[in-house]
């Protein structure tokens, strides 16, 4: 097992403020980062997230607002950070691709690949989708010539001089790394999908855009007239921070969390770029599904965007985290509605967790007993957390909620309120308090604020009834 771990999420575009779909990934990665800090130690974990600020989409969004690109992306980046902070995301660095260190790293990386003979100049004539920030072939467009992912955007026809990366030369390399799991692509279905894509063959990809078309980017180190292509620039963010902090070495497990729409960039382009520039590859790319709101894609044009801060204001941060970790699109797309969050809140948080806590606290207080704080150490490598090897945060929550249900049964069966002998009552309550103390630890990676509140209440010898943690919502 490696001593350290670098956990990253995709960095979000700054054309608009993020919604709950983008935020899902940050919560998932945050849960794993928090778990690893408990399991490996604080110093052994580094978690990065941030914003992807160059390229046409960001440039155009700035123009629409009548702002300079820098003012625009700074504004949105700050807003995104507020959204993420509202979800209690414990990132170690919020990186912006306009940060000075990243700009320097990107240019140096480009230069390394150039020196290794993998970048050459040529002409590109073809299509480009600004929504994906990607070049498209005819087969990647629908019958109306529009992008499948962004059918409302006008597809661009490009005819320009660019620098190209020799992606096609990395086909066998990628096949070998992915099929052998040296680069673990998960879930398994995604691994199969990426290998199938490789079977069609890779074509060299342009890694610059001419400045007269896209001025908002990092100038190519070998050509003043070109900027580095936004995906080439953005992917390097992981290395910028990882390598500066000593988290891009052989002792580190490197895990990228990404959504299904950008799996290819991370599993096929990024490893080829790293190999070209002479860096080690990541260990894993974990690909999650999409959140759909009441069955529809979340999008500005459909007017159904929900911001994390709106949800937090309505339900509280831990309820949002709990809901998304338990019912989010960990492997498959998931449907999401406010009604469903409310049901889960009332059923599993107000009732399942909150009610059990207030029952035990009230009984413990009434008994007047001391409950010496024992050695409720958690085995973070134990069976309960086994599903986290495959990032199945939902399964761990299920198991913890089974423990809570068992505890509830224990209370109902033993009826502590009716127990006559002190010895028996002490035995029953000691068990229940001890179970809740364990639960408070288990839930730390998932709902840290709640864990802390329970620990404050139960972490001392005299236990007193407290406020309802999750008051029922009508
Ligand atoms: N900027 C690129 C990523 C560069 S990473 C080097 C990008 N940005 S994005 O803002 O469009 O998306 C950021 C992340 O949010 C991606 O992983 C994407 O899959 C994810 N999601 C966007 N909408 C989502 C949902 N509705 N549901 C779940 N995840 C979603 O792509």
Q: Can I get a quick summary?
A:
The protein is an alpha/beta fold. The protein has helices at residues 20-40, 56-65, 69-86, 100-115, 171-179, 188-199, 230-235, 237-244, 263-277, 308-315, 317-327, 338-367, 393-414, 422-442, 448-458, and strands at 4-9, 12-13, 45-52, 93-96, 119-129, 134-136, 156-165, 184-186, 205-206, 208-210, 219-220, 223-228, 252-259, 284-288, 291-293, 334-336.
Short key terms for the protein model shown above:
binds 5'-O-[(L-methionyl)-sulphamoyl]adenosine, 15 helices, alpha/beta, 474 residues
- Mean pLDDT comes to 96
Specify the biggest β-sheet.
7 strands, parallel
What separation lies between the terminal Cα atoms? 48 Å
Quantity of strands, as a count: 16
Distinct helical segment count: 15
Radius of gyration: 25 Å
- Which regions have little confidence, pLDDT < 50, spanning 5+ residues? none
Helix content: 40-55%
Shape: elongated
Our estimate of the beta-strand percent is: 15-25%
Structure description:
This protein has 474 residues and is of the alpha/beta class. It is 46% helix and 17% strand. The protein has 15 helices and 16 strands. It has helices spanning 20-40, 56-65, 69-86, 100-115, 171-179, 188-199, 230-235, 237-244, 263-277, 308-315, 317-327, 338-367, 393-414, 422-442, 448-458; strands at 4-9, 12-13, 45-52, 93-96, 119-129, 134-136, 156-165, 184-186, 205-206, 208-210, 219-220, 223-228, 252-259, 284-288, 291-293, 334-336. Strands 1, 2, 3, 4, 8, 13 and 14 form a seven-stranded parallel β-sheet that branches. A hairpin with a 4-residue loop joins strand 5 (119-129) and strand 6. The two termini are 48 Å apart. The mean pLDDT is 96. Bound molecules: 5'-O-[(L-methionyl)-sulphamoyl]adenosine.
